[in-house]
Structures
1.
Amino acid sequence: MGRSFFNFRDGAGTGRIAIDPESSVLPDAAAPRAYALQAAQDLVRRGRSDAERDWFACAFEIVDAAGEPVLTVPFSETVPDAADA
């Protein structure tokens, strides 16, 4: 798959984005989504409520080594649909 950068988009409607300076090298095309969902779950679980008011409005915007968008993973996808449960 190659190198993926997981940029964090703030859900407060400010348009703020935190750029991932390090990136991750993942094994296949499905790995970035799974990685982003796990990271989002960890942030929501361990995050301070005063640091982010609405975690589920946040997203990871994944780009490749060339800076091209690959995928956007909203934090809301960490919560399974009723049909999935």
2.
Amino acid sequence: MLVVHTDGVSEARDAAGTFYPVVERLAERFGGARSPDPEAIVAFLRSDTKRWAADAVDTDDDQAVLAPTPAHPGHRAAVRRS
């Protein structure tokens, strides 16, 4: 699974100034899962970084997380245009 995020995730700091350890936290939470749900990954990072930085002074950096998954063979992806 590919997880793409902005620096608002990886640069979240706790009260001691320690950066959020993205890879380690994902491995702790999803390391044994064969194919984790992308929505669960995004929700986890959102809530976990909030908890990580709860006591930090500067917590207003924006965050974006994408966890795209490949389409199943024979599946046609829907394209939405606006």
